[in-house]
Give the backbone structure.
Amino acid sequence: ETGKERNNFLRDLSCQSFNEYINTRLKRLKKYDLQYHVSDNAEEIILSYRQLYLNRIKSIKNKDFENFHRLCEQMQRNNRVIIRKVTHTGSNKVFASCLLLTDSRRIYNIINNLMPEGRKSLANYFLFQQLILEFKDSGKILDFEGSDLKGVGYFYEKFSTRNEPYFPYRFNNLPKAIRWVKD
């Protein structure tokens, strides 16, 4: 069974130009004292995501977070995890962070955390601008992993160079009586 078409926004990292909307926000960044940091602490990013969004995403259980953390540990041993943070210089408080997984072709935006104070200082714009600059010569594509949440999707769309929509697919192979109850 296929569902409604969903967005998946991509950015060719070799493209260093931004649209007018993004450029306007990037110009405003100068008044905030933000710093971009490399990190290797997957647990910190996962815990932050859990604190920020757990109430909104009821389908994710504690075991899912634990399993994802173990997966990240395994992938870190193969240099396939990218973790970046944005802090405010004066306080070293994290305003935005992301955990990305990578392969030979793409960098996948798996977790993106934006703290309330980061929203006010446009920290996510700074985070993705710096990430794009850092990996501009990688030959890879930044895969925002789409979002059909209005504000999130709008943000990713503005940074993207194209949309690669997909159709979700759901398969239920349970016996007919149980399938009827589940559906």
